[in-house]
Give the backbone structure.
Amino acid sequence: MDDRPPLVTTVLLAAQHMLAALGGIIAVPLVLGAVLKLPADQIVALVNAALLGSGVVTIIQCKGVGPVGIRLPCVMGTSFGFVGAAITIGFEHGVPGILGCSLAGSVIMIVGSFFMPQIRKLFPHTVTAVVVTMIGLSLIPVAIDWAAGGKGSPAYGAPVNLGIALFVLVLVIGLVQFGRGIISAAAVVIGMSIGYAGCMAFGLVDFSSVRQAAVFALPQPLHYGMTFPISGIFAMSLAYVVTIVETTGTFMALGTATNTKMRGKLLCRGVLCDGVGSAFTSILGSPAVSTFAQNVGVISLTGVASRHVVALTGVFLALAGLFPVLGALVVTIPQPVLGGAGLMMFAMILAAGVQMLAKVEHNKRNGLIIAVSLGCGLAVTGRPELLSKLPAIVNEIFGSGITTGAIVAVVLNLVLPGRETEASDDEAEEEVPQPMLVKHLGAA
């Protein structure tokens, strides 16, 4: 995680993470702008602030500033976990209400971060394995929609879209399996670049967004102003509570990908950065941020876990916020190209979860936890309309398959006899007796 590859290698690997995250970062402000029918200039300002804020918080999360930042390869971005609450607030109080409630609600995440050692105990191996698996299962439909041409597109599932996605997928597999050094490590960005070049050759790339984008744009903190409606603060606070669960699961998956023991203190620093970062982006004029799960797939696929590489990704995102034309250029990448690479990346997270499940002790109790929690998570993921007739608060809590699977797994682990627990940080440090440790060091 502390490796510093050569500059050219670092740039390629950082660009890889940026390509995986950029679509998700700009999607949230675009959705909010479309639903709330904001003027074009306000939507552009939201997108720029989201990119700049995500970039700055990514750097802090990777590098750390005092007690803030997990110091692992995390990419931060605007989260769809806040969209439901933001739209509800926006209809009545506009963008100032969304930003004010995001700022006030971030206190929940900041305070909650100090209880992460206790929350960590709710995630023993069985529960963690379920959450990591559910992250992979929830992300794969996203990649499928990309590969088919984009959800809602009139060309959804067109043979040309599927053919492009399949070409990129096969290319990435070949580069990872048979490439050496930087070729294998940068398989995603190389595969997407070749796919993008092929789409350009056949006239499938639309550059209209690049022509319309401004070359340079300064951030405008508090440009919209802020209001703090009580009902909106409650809704946003609930979204932050749900996000703590999702972020914990993402950090668990990241721990698996980077061979890092996710102790409570480490989680505390990471969740604190999510909270402080969301407060910062709210002031900047962007929706709240959280740790992106899709970039864990990049790490799992390439084996590159350098936090310095991902910190450079943060620099790229910040530049895209200051120079909108750069972000607009990346947005021209056809969705099938993203889908071919995304399917491989997200499937790697699923594979990691399956490997963790294979190490779970096989008994009736664990089988129940795994089966019921995955079933409930998949029910919400595959049929989101399942909750459409229930109160809004239920949708807010259980609208995400990752959150649903995690909550069900935690509850079942607590209520079923023979509870599995996670060792405390102090106990975990004592797992290897000192004589045995000396013996291993001597052998090494």
